[in-house]
Design goal:
Blueprint lengths: L2 E5 L6 H12 L2 E4 H14 L7 H4 L8 E6 L2 E6 L2 E2 L7 H10 L3 H17 L2 E5 L2 H5 L5 E6 L2 H14 L6 H17 L12 E4 L5 H16 L1
Parallel strand pairs: 1-6, 1-7, 2-6, 7-8
Antiparallel strand pairs: 3-4, 4-5
Bound molecules: 2'-deoxycytidine-5'-monophosphate (DC).
Length: 221
């Protein structure tokens, strides 16, 4: 089995690039952020504070997650319900970041994620795939971009969706989430020593995609 680990902060273009690369290679794409988002959503719906360990931990046995590939799209099911769209809300992203700091949540997902990589060729994207989940991954990529470049992309996406939010607010949000994800005690966001770093600040989608393809070709031969 081969596995490709792609880690990096939110907004570097990870999921779009990862999805396309997985498709091209014929690998199963696993978006691990979606799993944290589903747990965040569960906590929000239950009226709990997603940062409250004592409230979130007892919920874990009640949670069953399933990922399914439907026509190349990853769908995520939370206790049988398709929550693929619901987990994309901004508020759920923040809740995901909060539950992701809870060690029991990370332990719960670790087994699930490793199991997926044992069964098939996967391209997994997240924050700790190269460092914790798949330390023996065949290829490790750390995909990043400056906070300003990531905020600008998010702002443009929002504009296209008709969401009016000041660029400064988006930038604040990006920085806050970066801080939260890289300063937590449990599996913080960091580059694995053997990961290849790709900075997409000055690259467009096609250039970023070519850079990733080249790395994979060099590593997998
Ligand atoms: O990539 P994303 O925005 O969907 O991730 C949502 C949150 O989940 C993010 O704030 C960090 C967390 N996360 C994590 O801690 N570890 C992962 N492997 C993936 C996501």
């Amino acid at each position: 089995m081969h596995s490709i680990a792609i880690d990096g902060p939110a907004g570097a273009g990870k999921s779009t690039l990862a999805r396309r690369l997985a498709k091209e290679l014929g690998y199963i794409y696993v978006d691990t952020g979606a799993m944290y988002r589903a747990i965040g959503l569960y906590a929000l719906r239950a009226g709990a504070d997603p940062a409250d360990r004592a409230a979130v931990e007892p919920m874990l046995p009640e949670i069953s997650l399933r990922l399914e590939n439907q026509a190349g799209e990853q769908k995520i099911f939370l206790n049988g319900e398709d929550v693929s769209a619901a987990i994309r809300a901004e508020q759920v992203g923040m809740a995901a970041s909060a539950v992701a700091a809870i060690p029991a949540v990370r332990a719960f997902l670790l087994e699930l994620q490793r199991g997926m990589a044992r069964a098939q060729n996967v391209l997994m994207d997240g924050r700790d795939i190269g460092t914790v989940i798949l330390p023996d991954a065949s290829v490790k990529i750390f995909l990043t971009a400056s906070p300003e470049a990531r905020a600008r992309r998010r702002w443009l996406e929002n504009q296209a969706k008709g969401i009016e939010e000041a660029y400064e607010t988006v930038l604040e949000d990006v920085k806050k989430r970066d801080y939260q994800d890289s300063h937590r005690a449990a599996a913080p966001l960091r580059q694995a020593e053997d990961a290849v770093r790709v900075d997409t600040s000055e690259l467009d989608f096609e250039q970023s995609f070519e850079a990733l393809k080249k790395i994979v070709a060099e590593k997998l031969g």
